[in-house]
């Protein structure tokens, strides 16, 4: 019989594996390691995501990640001027 700690550890591992599976199943992160939020737009100057989009990337389903990626070209062009 497993102890409570062993059960918690197993549950953590299952959650980690599910996050890894979800992350691998969808589009990759647009991060280019230039991580700074522009105070005017609220977007990262490197990838043009919001802080919430960056934070939630790993737990977002693939279709949500794709929606974010689809919005980035317009953000880049609107911020280019």
Number of H- or I-type helical stretches = 3
Distance between the termini: 64 Å
DSSP strand (E) fraction?
under 5%
- Rg from Cα: 17 Å
What's the average pLDDT?
91
Q: Enumerate the spans where pLDDT stays under 50 for 5 or more consecutive residues.
A: none
- Report the count of strand segments: 0
Structural class given helices, strands, pairing? Answer: mainly alpha
Instruction: Describe the global form.
Output: elongated
> Strand-and-helix sequence, N→C?
HHH
* Helicity range: 55-70%
The main sheet comes to:
none
Give the tags.
single chain, mainly alpha, 81 residues
What does this structure look like?
The protein has about 80 residues and is mainly α. The longest helix has 22 residues. It is built from three helices and no strands. The chain is elongated.
Outline the fold blueprint:
Blueprint: H1 4-25, H2 51-56, H3 62-79
């Amino acid at each position: 019989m497993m102890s409570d700690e062993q059960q918690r550890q197993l549950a953590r591992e299952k959650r980690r594996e599910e996050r890894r599976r979800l992350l691998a199943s969808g589009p990759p992160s647009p991060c280019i390691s230039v991580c700074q939020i522009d105070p005017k737009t609220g977007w990262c100057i490197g990838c043009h995501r919001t802080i919430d989009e960056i934070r939630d990337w790993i737990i977002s389903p693939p279709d949500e990640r794709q929606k974010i990626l689809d919005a980035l070209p317009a953000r880049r062009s609107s911020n280019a001027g």
